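To fix ideas, we reproduce below a protein record of this kind.
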Amino acid sequence: MLAVLKRAGVIMLTPIIIVITPIFYPVFACVTAIGSIRLVYVERRRKSRPVIATGLSCSIDNDCPPGYVCIDGRCMPHNAN
């Protein structure tokens, strides 16, 4: 009896899946594309932000990010004296 019900369920679901899949496939493709574009945008924006390191404490120049030097225990931009 259980096998008959499983078979009936598969037979009834197959046409529904065949009808629904073409409708939702473009939706899933668009959601995936939008998500990918958003991830690229967020990553590029994060990388393009300047490093604000003037509040970082340091003891030598190597403790500071590139473009900064250690002056009086603080990381300062290289052109600031």
